[in-house]
Specification:
With about 300 residues, this protein is mainly beta. The chain contains 4 helices and 21 strands. The strands form 3 sheets. Strands 14, 15, 16, 17, 18, 19, 20 and 21 form an 8-stranded antiparallel β-sheet that branches.
Length: about 300
């Protein structure tokens, strides 16, 4: 007895056509961002009057260049930045640009199909597909939330869109951890645009597992310290691995930022980190705008 196919040939053709249309729409709204510090990444045209959303670690300079999908290369100015969310706003002199349709990231479901668009490793307009792995719950302490997707991304995808099957952007691709893509939820982007920027600490971190006292713990590897930044004034160096603050080891990549944001001026902030395999403590003093002073003492 013949078994009827679950998807007919006509239905398969329709799905392929719809996916191609969604891909083309995302491509038109995705830009290449080039910076002298970060090298490059992606961005998303959020408003037709030239407002582009990207990652803070992609747009580290005040001025960057943006290449649109039609090949135009335009100078852009960074008008707002929020390192906690890893978001930045770029402005270009252009009008009537194609814009994304913004979806509701709070309505996402685990297992939902998603698409990641970007420019990974020099490949322009690359698309990968996957599913939603998980969504962080709302946190009363205002910690960063993430959309986690089982989708293949690579350097160059940062700042690009994560969209649902209808082509609605539900996140901004930001980093890779544990084989998963982490994206800033679209609703968090909208809150960022309404609320402005936050103080800039000036350090780029990457989560990783480190071995300490025969146990694997979460560490935050310092990838870059911005010249003249407060992080540089605090004495942090490239290659340091932050592992704790205020007597608590890190459980999530956002714990350090939460400690800094919740600190009162004059409060002592014990920081704990590894440098070349040695454990160090810093008794830092929080001041306004995350100004931190203190001395490094080897343990």
């Amino acid at each position: 007895m013949a078994i009827a196919p679950l998807i007919t040939k006509d239905a398969s053709t329709d799905i392929a056509s719809e996916l191609a249309a969604v891909t083309l729409g995302l491509h038109h709204c995705t830009v290449q961002v080039r910076s002298s510090h970060s090298g490059g990444g992606s961005g998303v045209i959020w408003h037709s009057d030239g407002l582009i959303i990207t990652n803070a670690h992609v747009a580290q300079d005040e001025r960057v260049t943006v290449e649109l999908s039609d090949g135009r290369v335009i100078d852009a100015v960074r008008t707002s930045v929020d390192p906690r969310r890893d978001l930045a706003v770029l402005r270009i002199e252009a009008t009537d640009l194609p814009v994304v349709t913004v979806g509701d990231s709070d309505a996402l479901r685990v297992g939902e199909l998603v698409l990641a668009m970007g420019n990974p490793q020099g490949v322009v307009g690359a698309l990968t597909t996957g599913i939603i792995h998980g969504i962080d719950p709302t946190d009363a302490q205002n910690r960063q939330r993430w959309v986690m997707a089982d989708v293949r991304v690579a350097p160059g995808n940062s700042g690009g869109p994560l969209a649902n099957a209808r082509g609605q952007v539900i996140g901004i691709n930001t980093m890779i951890a544990g084989g998963l893509a982490f994206a800033v939820p679209s609703n968090e982007v909208e809150r960022f645009l309404k609320g402005g920027s936050r103080p800039y600490f000036g350090v780029t971190l990457r989560p990783l597992q480190v071995l300490l006292e025969n146990k694997r713990i979460l560490g935050l590897l310092v990838l870059e310290v911005a010249s003249g930044s407060l992080a540089m004034a605090a004495g942090l160096m490239l290659g340091d691995v932050l592992i704790g603050a205020c007597g608590q080891r890190f459980n999530t990549p956002d714990d350090l930022v939460n400690v800094l944001e919740n600190a009162e001026p004059g409060e002592s902030l014990p920081l704990e980190f590894l440098r070349k395999g040695k454990l160090y403590h810093r008794n830092a003093i929080a001041r306004s705008s995350f100004d931190i002073i203190g001395k490094i003492a080897e343990v």
